[in-house]
Amino acid sequence: MSTIVLLTLTGLALAAMYFLLAAGLSLIFGLMDVLNFAHGAFFTWGAYVAWWTVGRAADVLGPTGAFLLALVAATLAVAALAAAVEIGLLRPLYRRPIYQVLVTLGIGLALSQLTSVIWRPDARPFPQPDWLVATSTVFGARVPNNRFLLIAAALAVLGGLLLFLRRTRYGLIVRAGAENREMVQALGIDVDRAFTLVFALGGALAGLGGVFGAAYFGSINPNFGSVNLIFAFIVVVIGGLGSVTGSALAAVVIGLAQQFGNYYTSWAGDFVVVLLLAVVLLVRPRGLLGTLQ
Q1: Cα–Cα dist 145/164, whole Å
Q2: DSSP letter assigned to residue 38
Q3: What is the three-class DSSP state of 109?
């Protein structure tokens, strides 16, 4: 029983990390029709900004204060980076999707190399407060506390995104702009500013996910985001391109399948994920939901 509980909670925490990374991808594609291949690099930069912040603030604020500051710093820094990328490089290419893909892919590669130059290519342990590393007992299973924090963060992000899309003025503007950009502009609404906000929000989610991903794995390296980006794309495709709730559902399925598969065999976890992707593409090509929800 304790093993099932441990695998379930750990799988849900892995799913939460995938969702934090995939939510930004899904949001940007669903609202802007842009496949952002630089998203993995944003995830990596969030982790490294957090690592850098904790290393300099721990003596002043203590481990917990430094970790909280790192969450804020990583989120804001990557949001600013994403906004700069959208304004400077992507905005002129909204009607040229192939160029968008090439540009975001190039940005991702460049940022990954820059990460190695600035922070060196070696893996680095990610410092966490003792209470995050400590474990809590749930039905006999000893589960690290950072798993619970990661799940709570993903639930909060999911709720916040749904409120943003359905209840805020900017959320409604962006959804309308995604459907008919010319009509919204004719009403005197600055769609470009709204799209920049969306891209910055996607970057902020990647930065936040990078911090929690670093806490989940305990270490970071320059390829940290690239590896997880593959699974994030699978989450987005299975959930439905542009569906935030679909991404959340797909992340849970993939996280649990991967965790249980890797526990019982050394290879089945990733195989099951690919098999799920193939089945969904054959049976339901638009994904589990497939619309902006």
Answers
A1: 29
A2: T
A3: helix
Query: Which domain does 14 fall in, by range?
Result: 2-283
Averaged confidence pLDDT in the chain? 84
Which residue has better confidence, 222 or 270? 222
Residue closest to 196 by CA, chosen among 274, 85, 93: 85
How far is 157 from 47, CA to CA, in rounded Å?
18
In angstroms, rounded to a whole number, what is the distance separating the alpha carbons of residues 79 and 91? 16
User: Would you say residue 125 has pLDDT above 70?
Assistant: yes
The answer to whether residue 292 is domain-embedded is no
Q: What CATH number is attached to the domain comprising 148?
A: 1.10.3470
Torsion of CA 201, 232, 43, 63, to 10 degrees: 100
212, 153 Cβ separation under 8 angstroms: yes
Identify the DSSP state of 96: -
Token pair for 224:
């940290």
**Is residue 171 predicted with pLDDT exceeding 90?**
no
**Residue 152: pLDDT band by 50, 70, 90 thresholds?**
very high
pTM: 0.89
pLDDT in tens, 16-47: 999 999 888 888 877 677 788 888 899 999 99
Number of domains in the chain: 1
Beta bridge partner(s), residue 124: 220
Is 111 within 8 Å of 45 (Cβ atoms)?
yes
Residue 45 lies in a domain: yes
